[in-house]
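Still learning folds. Look over my entry:

…
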Amino acid sequence: MPIITEAPVTADTKLPAGRDDTADTLNARLLDVLKSYDDLAIAISGGIDSMTLAFVAHRFLATPPTMVHAVSPAVPGEATLRIRDYARREGWHLSLVDAGEFADPSYRANPLNRCYFCKSNLYDRMRGLSFAIIASGTNLDDLGDFRPGLKAAQERRVVHPFVEAGIRKADIRALARYHGLTDIAELPAQPCLASRVETGIRIEADDLAFIDAAERHVRGHVSPRANVRFRLTRSGVVLEIGGQGDCDPDRIAQLAESFCKEAGREFAGVRPYRQGSAFVRTSDRSDELAQRN
C-alpha cells in the first residue's frame, strides 16, 4: 500500500535521502513505489517532473494511470501542447480539465499562499473525476522550498512517488535521459505563470498571457536551459534571467524593453534570476494566511 502520511510533507519529514545512484537503480526504486499503488491519477503540468513520472507509470504499470492536466491561463501554452503530443504518442488516457481556480476569489487575490488555493482546486477537481489515488511530481528537492501547495496535497492525501523513492531533481533528469526523453530531460524549471506576479497584485488572465508571450519571445534568443522570468511588480515589469550562456545582456534587455513597450507596459529593468522572488510578505495578514494554510 502507498505511504500516505497524516502530517504535512516538509523538508524535515523523515524520508529516504537522495543518493547518487545509477539510472537503473533510480528506475527500480521508482517502480517499486509505483507498483505499490492499485490505481493512479497523475496531476501533470507539462514540466519534466510530472512528465517523467507519467511516462514511467504508463509504460510499466499493469493498470495504466489516468493523466489529468488543468488547462488554465496560468499554464504556459507550450506545456499543454507538450502534454497533448505525449498523450498521442504514448497512448495516455488524458483528461483536460478546468480546475476552477479563476473562480476562486482567494486565488485571484494572490496572497502569499496562493499555491494552496490553486492546488486545492486542482485536487478537488481530480477527486470529482476519479476515486484513484492522486499523485504529484513533487521530488525531494521541492521539500526545501516554500510550497503552500504541499499543504493542500496533504489534506487530500495526495501521494508523491519521487519523494517516497528518495529521488531529487537531478535524478529525474537522469531518468528522463535513461528513457530517451531527450526533449524534456533538460527543460528548465517552469512553474505556473501566476508565480511571476508579485504577492498582492490580483491575478488576471491578460497579465498571464503577456508574461507567457514575453518569455517565449526572449527564450528564442537565449540558451534552451536559461531561466527566463518576466515578473509583474508594483514598479513595473522586471526581467529576471539566469544561465543565458554567451548572449549579450544589453541585447536581451533591449528585446525585453521593446516587447514591454509594444504591449503598453512599463519596463523596470533586468536582474539576475532568483527563485520565488515574486513572493512578498506585504502584510501581517499575508503571514497569517500562509501560516494557517
